[in-house]
Design a protein that fits this description.
Order of helices and strands: HEEEEEEEEEEEE
CATH class of one domain: Mainly Beta
Low-confidence stretches: none
Radius of gyration: 34 Å
Largest sheet: 5 strands, mixed
CATH architecture of one domain: Sandwich
Number of strands: 12
Distance between the termini: 94 Å
CATH topology of one domain: Immunoglobulin-like
Mean pLDDT: 82
Strand order of the largest sheet: 2-3-9-12-7
Length: 193
């Protein structure tokens, strides 16, 4: 018991000595640089969300025709919102008849490699910054020179729906397709020439 009382007394004496000491006053010279107490958080990229149909628009960029009636049509999706958004997959692309119904063989088949692609191009997540575009292509055959079958049906309109959305865009198109129609996945980067 005496030991405990002795230790408590020793601790009390040490703390009173420590409390009696003063901390030296330090000053910073005026020419020394000062450190701001406000720390800026790192700038992180804005989070991306799935694109909504209401934030997109689509346009035809070009229609390249080759020998044998081969056509490769380039389209671009534009992000009209103020936030980045993402698309992944294949657009729904449909050729319509005069009444607005999908023509027989008028719904495009998803294709990992279209005419002119050097390699397979599977679907990847594509981020579209505000005011920029992502693209996709459509391939079809219009018969071409030497075609001896019935005249190919003509579609005056195409209905296009972005992957993961429900809004349908209807564009005026003059497409005469004799065989299947193929569509690529949405792709990023500069528009192909």
């Amino acid at each position: 018991m005496r030991r405990i009382i002795f230790l408590l007394g020793l601790m009390a004496a040490a703390s009173s000595v420590a409390m009696g000491q003063s901390v030296p006053n330090r000053t910073i010279a005026p020419s020394a640089p000062t450190i701001s107490s406000r720390i800026e958080p790192p700038r992180l990229p804005l989070p991306s969300v799935q694109c909504r149909g209401a934030d997109l628009s689509v346009r035809q960029v070009s229609d390249d025709a080759a020998m044998g009636g081969e056509h490769l049509v380039l389209y671009a999706w534009r992000n009209n919102s103020s936030m980045p958004c993402t698309l992944k997959g294949y657009p729904r692309y449909e050729l319509l008849d005069k009444l607005g119904a999908v023509r027989p063989r008028g719904r495009a088949i998803n294709s990992k490699q279209l005419l002119g692609d050097e390699a397979l191009m599977p679907a990847e997540l594509v981020t579209i910054a505000p005011g920029t575009e992502a693209w996709f292509r459509v391939h079809y055959n219009s018969g071409g020179a030497g075609y001896l079958g019935k005249p190919c049906p003509v579609s005056r309109k195409a209905r296009i729906v972005a992957p993961g959305t429900t809004r349908a865009f209807v564009l005026k198109e003059d497409i005469s397709s004799c065989r299947k129609v193929e569509v690529s996945a949405v792709r990023s980067g500069p528009l192909p020439e």
